[in-house]
Task: structure prediction
Amino acid sequence: MSINHNLLVEVAVSGMFYGTPLVFASVGEVITERSGVLNLGVEGMMLMGAAAGSWASIHISGSNPWVLFCATIIGAAAAALVALLHAFLVVTLRVNQIVAGLALTIFAGGAGLSSFLANSWNLAAKPAPHQFQELSVFGWKNAPIIGPLLFHHNVMVYFSWIVVGATSWYLFRTRAGLHLRSVGESPHTADAMGLNVARIRYVNTMVGGALAGVGGVYFSLLIVPTWVDGMTQGRGWIALALVIFGFWRPGLAMIGAYLFGAFASLGLTLQARNVHISPDLLDALPYLMTIVVLIIVSNSGARKRLGAPAALGQPFIRDER
Amino acid sequence: MRSIAFERRTNTPKWLRIAVPMFGIAIALVLGAMLLAWTGHATTGTYRQILHRGFTDPGTFATTLVAATPLLFTGLTAAIAYRMGVFNIGGEGQLFIGAMFASFVGLGLGSAPTVVVVASMILAGAVGGSLWASIAAVLRDRFRCNEIITTLMLNYLAGILIQYLIFSSHSYWRELTGTGALFPQGRMLSERAQWPNPHIGGTPVPFGFIVGISFAVLIFVLLRSTRFGYRVRVIADAPAAAKYAGINARRTTFAVLALSGAMAGIGGASDVGDFRHTLDPKGLQQAGYGYTGIVVAALGRLNPIAVVFVAILMGGLNTAGLALQGPDFPAGLVGTLQGLLLFCTLGGEGLARYRIVIRRRAGSASRSAAPRSSSPRSAASPTEAPGLATGEVGG
Amino acid sequence: MNPESIDVLTAGTNLVPAVEMFGITKRFGDVVANDGVNFHACVGEVHALLGENGAGKSTLTNMLTGIYQPDAGEIRLYEKPLRLTSPRAAIAAGVGMVHQHFKLVPTFTVAENVVLGLSAEHRGVKFRRAAIERRVAELSERYQLAVDPAKKIWQLSVGERQRVELLKVLIREARILVLDEPTAVLTPQEADSLFVTLRSMADDGRTVIFISHKLYEVTAVSDRVTVLRDGRNIATVDTADCDQRSLAALMVGRDVQFDRRVGTHVRGDSEPVLIAANVDADGDDDRGALHAISLSLRAGEILGIAGVAGNGQRELGEVLGGIRRIRSGNIDVCGKQQTCGDPVAFAKSRVAYVPEDRLGTGLAPSLSIADNVALRSFRAAPFARPPFIRRRWLRSHTQELMSRYDVKAPGPETPIRKLSGGNIQKVLLAREFESDPLVLVVASPTRGLDVGAIENVRSLLVTAAERGTGIVLISEDLDEVRAMCDRIAVMYEGRIVGIVDGESADVNTLGLMMAGAT
Result:
């Protein structure tokens, strides 16, 4: 057996595979929350992305890469539209962000619009005709250790790395990022300095939604890959926990996502090696882990220094006196 | 060119409080119709069917009450907690655990008198639900964990737990004889442990529904007139003021979460006693009572009495959804409609707090120092003159 | 404050108009904040905008800075009519504002704050940290506004933060500067140095508009004064032609006299009602906020606690009011040791507390007046018949309190946040006085109130002292503590640096103590 079939390598690789949708969703939520908008509707947005992506892969014809490209864009756009609804409610109408986010999940979630549309379009009938495949970058997929870890993923994994890098750069190195963060920290300051608080919040809520949608596409065209109602199985909520875990930083959120991916896939990896653990316990692991991690993060002193954007969840009203 | 601005209302007129939800419901129905038309379904036909199969067809109202019962409890669950700003989304899991506890008691006390069994099942359900909610309460209190995420994770865990009891183990709850030897299923309650259905006005009313109404009234009084309710109000409005008044926010939060969980737990007990007569993990998980309860509470504006009526409305929707499910009536339609209702009433409430003012803009470029011809003192064009302000927008 | 230190220009030497506002009207719901206000300021002058709280000063300037739009009227800058529809438009037109509550992002560096939202010419995708820090350093040198551009705002003192605000305005090349009560958070000495800076900015051809309700500042620094009252402009006068007394008459519309009422009610031989001995306590950030605080208070005495905001006064108020725990030390009320951090026990020992944060701590804003009256005593009779609250009794009790303390509100069920600032404070004081306290701790009791309400609150406090209540008055308003208190303790960095006699305390000594000099 080659070193690439080492248990640790396999766990790491499947952690990356199953963690990638969480990377998209949690990085998207980091962007949204950095602008001061809490969007609890990640689960709903992911499912909308998954449904739209699945629809696109069936109805668009063309070469495999072209169809997948279109499906990803369409999935992202569908989720961004749902996010737009959230932005309208919380930014323009100043509805309580928690309530609006819950409403969004119920509206778009597994028993809502995503299911309605998918069933209207009959998406569950057959597996997606176009699916993402593993690449062998530079033909190095069999290189020891680094081969499976770095050069033998599907294109979405590589895309997620670009997203993480670009988001970090955007947030911390650009003017637009500075403005975005100022809106999340102190909207009244941003407003007085001539920034358009509402527009910045709208845009970044939609960007966050689009990324959640990409995470959804990953489910319907990669992990499952056909339509199942509620197929994201609460991953949207785990993405929300990962934002806290990652202290609102894209890089840390990615590490968290890979950890969860590893835990979630541990059962499959072990089963392949004939190690038998109760499947129910393994099902429970990601949820248990989320709680454990939340305890550790919420209770650590680090939270105070690297905490949430100061204006997270607060509506901005200029005329308030 | 015009600019639209929102102005905060200083007073919300009374008629708006009625008009806004009505307007919201109307908008939701219109949006739903548009969605139906877009996906190639009949619009008015679908609505008519929902009305018939959910409410007006002979005999359906009894089914609707059965469907409304768990929603009434999970609606109370959400309403109590949200009143204090504690976002318990764990109604789902708390209901599962309540059902698990209640069916345990119901199976064990099968030969006792019905009064004893029913009372014990209610108590067991309440204990189960509040224990499950207490986990989130402890995590929030001791470790400052966000209860939204913990209660949600606990929902999944509760689902896995009851599934394990029936499908992956030889537990007390599982039927191992008869068909149970072939297909995993829960043990049935004895006749005596099944809850009575008193007939009121010719319609059989689930006993759980009556229990639910009693709790709705109790909670209404509790929140309105007691010291406990007063504490909840102060904590919800101003935590610093609560501290200043020496109110123990930790203890009150704990009590509220436990009470909230107990409601969901009794909902689970009623599901077993009134309806399924067994612990049915798949059925419970598919029903999604906990999540619909959030819709119920929000539409009822967190008022326990209003929750009763909204629960009936939602119960009817669910009943129709189940009865009609098929190609013309895809799964997810009911959830979508519920979501739309929620959005539109929330949005309406948001709008009602503001007044939309449309101002006519003289010129677009603010930076370009657009000159105006009129003399400075009489220049009063950016006014909110009666003709320009749209004033009240109905929703 | 020493007016001599500033070279006061005679107004009228330079009459190029910079800001002209004609017939400005602004309403908020039913409240008319500005009613046909006219305001003119010239190039190169320091123009004070004087008025009581609620006179409409901030509203007027907020329309100049694009935060609000007037409902009627016209604004001209340098003789060009303009519509300032947003802060961005105002900045582009050369208007810069230093707000009373600083508009700074605490987690950002000075440089990041300075460039936030900077206009198009400076824009690039990337944020060039080094270049910006260099530019900020240059400017701060030129105007002697010393501040480290790489530091985070939360690490800076209040005075430094104000310098950042000035730098923000300068880097945007603002020709018109608006400052909203800029001295409210400064020591008298810091205020003097600010005035020198403002003067040099005016000499560079800028227009400085300076909002204040403090008469001595206005006479010290401005060339001309515009007085606002009840949303209308009353007069614009050359500062050289008037004195504090005539300005006060213009501002209030009648003669106001705050009598010093000191010493008459202290019973010299009485036992102290409150003794704090060596109290150490942590702030909200778990770092030490109070160090070795010792003080004593006799019946009928008013003890002032002065200091620049953020030097531990708030925490001291909370400790004495019973809501903050202490790390070490002792607090005795009438010889009985208290359990700190237990507000119920403090209330039982008849300690009343009026916190600085009225809406939010002292009162629950969305709850009714009646509910708020019950806040400290809802547990037992006559407020409750456990487990129920006696709602009907509470309503009539509240009604009675409201008429006794002259609270103007539609009824006892009105949410407290709908009341005016003065009425809110009356409800709070009424509730605390009703407990017949031995010790009354009040923090900034007159902040944000208009003159009528201030007089009212002060006379209520004096009445309480005359009845024998010992009062701890925490205030950043030096005039207030000097007028009201028998003794004044000055706090700096969590310590009491000294206690002086209220009668003989002068502003300069107090100012030096507030800056930490002993």
